[in-house]
């Protein structure tokens, strides 16, 4: 029998991206999802937040917590994407203002955030400390200045031996490369009173000049620029 989640593509066009509701969740279908018979992409904050609650993180050892520093209270995640890093920063106790300029990713994030806000156990964290803004912070930024700016753009793909995670391949299909990273870095480094954190894979060169400090994880590192 034909899978009902793959047949609508015939109607919309196999090359189309489209959003649909599945079990009251906004879900995305793309050509890659269709061709590789992956699950439609929807985003979720509740599962990851509850997962973090069960971990015994030591804030003195977690590279992202160290990169954010003990005195950070308000972080702008200017590349929200799937919201995974933003959720971790929220779990660390920060107030998070997250920006996403891609309309499709933003719609998926908004849907996940609406569900998270209604969760009886953890909804208050999202209601009280998480703000999602549609757009680019260079155009549309709140007046309150952050203590940290977090940046994780989609870099042009280098030569890879292994394929990136399925979710990241789908996101690349939706957003493409963030080719304006030089301009964004220049802007972010000009924000007063902030530390600027750039997420990189462990072996990649710094995106900008030498960072003030580097915090390394298993496969990722955080380059921190102090202003
Ligand atoms: C690599 S993904 C971010 C992954 C994210 N850290 C996570 O935890 O899923 C980059 C995302 O940032 C968005 N983006 C890139 N530059 C942006 C900007 N200047 N303003 C707003 N969104 C941006 C892209 O549309 C894309 O969804």
**What structural class results from the helix and strand content?**
alpha/beta
CATH superfamily of the largest domain: Vaccinia Virus protein VP39
CATH architecture annotation of the largest domain: 3-Layer(aba) Sandwich
Taking pLDDT < 50 over at least 5 consecutive residues as the criterion, the unreliable ranges are none
Strand order of the largest sheet: 5-4-3-6-7-9-8
User: Could you name the CATH topology of the largest domain?
Assistant: Rossmann fold
Largest sheet: 7 strands, mixed
Bound molecules: S-adenosylmethionine
Oligomer: single chain
- Percent of residues in β-strands: 15-25%
Helix content: 25-40%
Description:
With 227 residues, the protein is of the alpha/beta class. Helices cover 33% and strands 21% of the residues. The longest helix has 15 residues, at 103-117. Strand 8 and strand 9 form a beta hairpin. The chain starts with 7 loop residues before the first helix and ends with a strand. It is built from 9 helices and 9 strands. S-adenosylmethionine binds at residues 78-79, 81-82, 84-85, 99-102, 105, 136-137, 152-154, 175, 178, 184.
């Amino acid at each position: 029998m034909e899978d009902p989640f793959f047949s609508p593509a015939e109607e919309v066009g196999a090359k189309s991206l489209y959003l649909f509701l599945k079990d009251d969740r906004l879900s995305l279908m793309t050509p890659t999802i269709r061709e590789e018979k992956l699950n439609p992409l929807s985003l979720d904050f509740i599962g990851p937040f509850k997962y973090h609650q069960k971990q015994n993180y030591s804030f003195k050892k977690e590279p992202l917590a160290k990169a954010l520093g003990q005195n950070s209270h308000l972080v702008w995640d200017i590349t929200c994407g799937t919201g995974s890093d933003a959720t971790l920063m929220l779990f660390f106790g920060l107030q998070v203002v997250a920006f996403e300029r891609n309309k499709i990713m933003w719609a998926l994030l908004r849907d996940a955030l609406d569900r998270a806000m209604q969760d009886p156990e953890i909804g208050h964290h999202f209601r009280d400390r998480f703000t999602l803004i549609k757009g680019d912070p260079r155009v549309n930024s709140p007046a309150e200045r952050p203590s940290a700016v977090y940046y994780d753009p989609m870099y042009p793909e280098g030569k890879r031996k292994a394929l990136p995670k399925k979710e990241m391949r789908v996101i690349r299909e939706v957003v493409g490369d963030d080719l304006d990273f030089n301009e964004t870095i220049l802007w972010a480094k000009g924000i007063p009173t902030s530390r600027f954190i750039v997420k990189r894979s462990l072996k990649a060169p710094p995106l900008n000049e030498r960072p003030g400090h580097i915090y390394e994880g298993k496969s990722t590192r955080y380059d921190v620029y102090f202003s």
